[in-house]
């Protein structure tokens, strides 16, 4: 493992599974496959820029609180940095650094000209009013004003953020530079240059990957039993699209609990129920209650963890009954659990492939913004589907040629493209 100067900065993450160490392990495996030069590997193992800012916020009751915000820019050898902005209490610099690195490989894997970045603020959005969240977002954006921009680093939504936060970021940036700059963020509302299809894009990409994986086994989506952990931007959209395609979504969960119906849940009704029920699926009429732990162990064809990292670990991996695990979230399967699944012959479709639909449509949004030509949803979905299907088959081919698991194949493709670009550009100065 290549040592990282990030390591001394913080104590290990709460689950004692360091996400940055995990990310480096996957990079190391790919580097081995590629016989990567040690110097090149050292460069790719470190983020290029790490920014931590204090965010003082005046709460509605007059008190002042100071939050910690981060933005990590991993590697911009292929193009501007790109990555989501996460609002969650467990956000740490190590986690953000790991996610920034994942973004670099993901963009390279699907062939879009971006480098990886990620941002986040350690907070529980549910504890703040909308006005407080707006002040927090605007101050965070202002602190990062010199580090972001359409040609520098383009944030997008992630856990705990949505088009609303992107609109605040776009407005704050635009006010600071003196003119409207829609291209500074993606995942923004359509009224200010957002792309049609962006909201469902990550979930749509997940559905496409599930469809391709089932087709590889001679099956269609119709009747496939699917379990989904997480019912937000990604899990919610994947559930809707898989249900529309005829799959039986038998269980879903969110942070408050889960619901199960062996005959398949009525996903549109569940979606409407969850929205009315403070974004909770708990208590959905006609379904049985399940905990998140029980949900991961349900019998199904496809298990889709679409919430947070480290959900399938060495503690619960033996309970997983699915034949296919699709990582819609980033890093939901730990390194040890990944090996255990591989040994049992369970197919794991890795995050950098499975959830790339979001960044692909973010890229299409950026392209539309730069060209001032806006496409209909059909075109956006088609362009995304082409890139996703192509990436899926390249990963399968690479896996067969190298006789390695899909994750190693995906990393080898992503890391290989970045390493090649770095070698071609040369090390400055
Ligand atoms: P979100 O905040 O919209 O939704 C997260 C969902 O997970 C919510 O339903 C929440 O209640 C649930 N959840 C939280 N903690 C949970 C727990 N302990 N157990 C079960 N459910 C829990 O977030 P999102 O944007 O859907 O992101 C989900 C994952 O997908 C993250 O790993 C994110 O990095 C990744 N991702 C998101 C995008 C995107 O476009 N939004 C793109 C690529 C990857």
Bound heterogens, unique? nicotinamide-adenine-dinucleotide
C-alpha termini separation:
26 Å
* Biggest sheet layout: 7 strands, mixed
How many domains in all? 2
The count of helical stretches stands at: 14
Corresponding CATH superfamily of the largest domain: Leucine Dehydrogenase, chain A, domain 1
What helical percentage do the residues reach? 40-55%
Radius of gyration over C-alpha positions, nearest whole angstrom: 20 Å
CATH class of the largest domain: Alpha Beta
Overall pLDDT metric: 95
Number of strands: 12
List the uncertain runs: 1-15
**What is the subunit arrangement here?**
single chain
Per CATH, the architecture of the largest domain is: 3-Layer(aba) Sandwich
**Which secondary-structure class do the elements indicate?**
alpha/beta
The 3D shape can be described as: globular
Output the CATH topology of the largest domain: Rossmann fold
GO molecular function: oxidoreductase activity
Protein name: Glutamate dehydrogenase
Keywords: Oxidoreductase
Domain Glutamate/phenylalanine/leucine/valine/L-tryptophan dehydrogenase C-terminal: 195-426
In short:
The protein has helices at residues 19-34, 38-44, 93-110, 130-143, 163-177, 201-216, 233-244, 267-276, 292-296, 335-343, 351-354, 357-371, 377-402, 406-425, and strands at residues 49-58, 64-75, 81-88, 115-122, 153-157, 225-229, 248-254, 257-260, 288-290, 302-305, 324-326, 347-349.
């Amino acid at each position: 493992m290549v040592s990282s100067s990030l390591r001394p900065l913080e104590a290990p993450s709460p689950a004692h599974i360091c996400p940055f160490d995990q990310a480096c392990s996957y990079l190391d495996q790919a580097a081995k496959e590629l016989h990567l030069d040690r110097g090149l590997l050292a460069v790719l193992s470190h983020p290029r820029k790490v920014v931590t800012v204090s965010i003082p916020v005046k709460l509605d009751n007059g008190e002042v609180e100071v939050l910690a915000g981060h933005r990590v820019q991993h590697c911009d050898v292929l193009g501007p940095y790109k990555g989501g902005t996460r609002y969650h209490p467990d956000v740490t610099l190590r986690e953000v650094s790991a996610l920034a690195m994942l973004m670099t490989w993901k963009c390279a894997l699907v062939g879009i000209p971006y480098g990886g970045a990620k941002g986040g603020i350690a907070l529980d959005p549910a504890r703040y009013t909308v006005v407080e969240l707006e002040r927090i977002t605007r101050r965070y954006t202002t602190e990062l004003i010199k580090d972001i921009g359409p040609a520098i680093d383009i944030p997008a939504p992630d856990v705990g953020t949505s088009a609303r936060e992107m609109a605040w970021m776009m407005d704050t940036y635009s006010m600071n530079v003196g003119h409207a700059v829609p291209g500074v963020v993606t995942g923004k509302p359509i009224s200010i240059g957002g792309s049609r299809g962006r909201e469902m894009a990550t979930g749509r990409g997940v559905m496409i990957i599930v469809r391709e994986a089932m087709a590889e086994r001679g099956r269609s989506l119709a009747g496939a039993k699917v379990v989904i952990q997480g019912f937000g931007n990604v899990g919610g959209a994947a559930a809707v699209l898989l249900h529309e395609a005829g799959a039986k979504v038998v269980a879903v969960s969110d942070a408050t609990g889960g619901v199960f119906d062996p005959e398949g849940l009525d996903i549109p009704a569940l979606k409407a129920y969850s929205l009315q029920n403070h974004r909770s699926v708990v208590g959905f009429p006609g379904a049985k209650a399940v905990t998140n732990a029980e949900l991961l162990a349900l019998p199904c064809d496809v298990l889709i963890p679409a919430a947070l990292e480290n959900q399938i670990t060495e503690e619960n991996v033996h309970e997983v009954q699915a034949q296919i695990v699709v990582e819609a979230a980033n890093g939901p399967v730990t390194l040890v659990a990944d090996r255990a699944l591989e040994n049992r012959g369970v197919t794991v479709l890795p995050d950098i492939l499975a959830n790339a639909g979001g960044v692909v449509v973010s890229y299409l949004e950026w392209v539309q913004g730069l060209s001032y030509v806006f496409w209909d949803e059909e075109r956006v979905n088609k362009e995304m589907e082409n890139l996703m299907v192509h990436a899926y088959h390249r990963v399968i081919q690479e896996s067969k040629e190298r006789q390695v698991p899909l994750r190693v194949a995906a990393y080898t493709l992503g890391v290989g493209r970045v390493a090649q670009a770095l070698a071609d550009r040369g090390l400055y100065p």
